[in-house]
Q: What sequence folds into this?
């Protein structure tokens, strides 16, 4: 049978009881042989646990900490050199470039896919509205002048993508806007 | 001559005094490595985590507020790092199924060991028995026992390190020590001390 005071006994031995409860436990311990024995076991357990020896620091530990601090500081100065607003501007610029790039790269592909599709659609097209023929026509023709112009515009943005990918140039970007 | 308190040192680190950080490092590298070693059972990993913990302390120096003990903060960072490392290792273990390395599954989900403990007692050292018994405890109990028994951290501070209530710590410690008392009974009873 287990005395209901077991947890209090444990707390008493490890000095986790308030003074009133400790006093009560002291009195209980004098009467309860079971708790007296358990108290002895807790003490023995406590000293038995001393036999687990842990690792000690290696001689190069401090050097490792300093190396980490240095490399972390380098990373930080590199990152914070651009500052928050610039980083935000760079992010927005990057998103714009990606969207434009997707449009530019997808466009020919869309035309490619649509070419056979539109040829299939043509006989099915019942309402030859003014719009439908023009779009299919523009897509079928490899390089209509307007399209060529658009491509050129987009390409210049694409070139900017390389510039944006270069961080030195990127840092110039928001500065120019600030001026 | 008065010894600088950890808080004083940390406040100076905040102002850019590197030698104060060295002093904190000198004070706490050994206890921190022992603590982490007992949590993760691997010297190299323990050092790695301890270095990471000190790096985080250093990097957070500007945010340091002297409202909590320095060691509470340090142990809290270290405990989180260790528990994450243990969980990562467990996850990896689960992924490379088949290869039953003697490590994690066995040590984190201890099987009934009454017999094996009695057998191992003869052939292995007490340290290993204790290590295995402590490893068999649930994470929170394990961290609480190690902090309490080996790091000499009192239950109020353990509560802050583990972010649980003081009464929860008392109960964690009670359950942990009860398990250890039962599991290590042969060692305790037969007076192999
Ligand atoms: Zn009793």
A:
């Amino acid at each position: 049978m287990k005395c209901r005071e077991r947890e209090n006994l444990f707390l008493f031995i490890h000095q986790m009881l308030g003074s009133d409860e400790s006093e009560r436990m002291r009195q209980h311990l004098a009467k309860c042989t079971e708790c007296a024995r358990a108290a002895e076991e807790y003490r023995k357990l406590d000293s038995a646990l001393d036999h687990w020896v842990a690792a000690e620091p290696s001689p190069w530990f401090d050097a490792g900490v300093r190396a980490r601090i240095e490399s972390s500081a380098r990373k930080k100065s590199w990152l914070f050199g651009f500052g928050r607003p610039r980083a935000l501007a760079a992010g927005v610029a990057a998103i714009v470039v990606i969207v434009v790039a997707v449009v530019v790269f997808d466009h020919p592909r869309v035309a490619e896919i649509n070419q056979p599709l539109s040829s299939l659609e043509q006989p099915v097209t019942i309402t030859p509205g003014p719009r439908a023929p023009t779009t299919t026509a523009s897509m079928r023709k490899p390089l209509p002048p307007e399209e060529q112009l658009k491509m050129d515009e987009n390409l210049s943005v694409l070139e900017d993508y390389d510039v944006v990918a270069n961080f030195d140039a990127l840092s110039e970007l928001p500065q120019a806007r600030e001026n | 001559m008065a010894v600088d308190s950890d808080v004083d040192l940390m406040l100076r680190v905040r102002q850019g005094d590197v030698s104060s950080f060295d002093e904190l490092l000198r004070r706490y590298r050994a206890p921190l490595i022992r603590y982490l070693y007992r949590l993760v059972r691997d010297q190299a990993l323990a050092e790695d985590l301890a270095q990471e913990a000190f790096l985080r302390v250093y990097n957070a120096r500007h945010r340091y507020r002297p409202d909590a003990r320095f060691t509470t903060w340090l142990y809290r960072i270290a405990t989180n790092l260790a528990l994450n490392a243990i969980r990562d290792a467990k996850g990896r273990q689960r992924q490379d199924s088949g290869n039953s390395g003697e490590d994690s599954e066995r040590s984190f989900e201890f099987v009934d060991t009454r017999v094996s403990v009695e057998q191992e007692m003869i052939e292995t050292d007490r340290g290993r028995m204790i290590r295995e018994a402590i490893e068999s405890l649930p994470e929170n109990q394990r961290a609480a026992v190690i902090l309490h028994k080996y790091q000499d951290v009192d239950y109020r501070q353990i509560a802050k390190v583990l972010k649980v209530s003081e009464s929860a710590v008392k109960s964690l410690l009670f359950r942990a020590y009860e398990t250890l008392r039962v599991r290590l009974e042969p060692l305790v009873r037969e007076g192999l001390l």
Q: What stands out?
A: Residues A 3, 5, 28, 32, 34-35 surround zinc ion (CB under 6 Å).
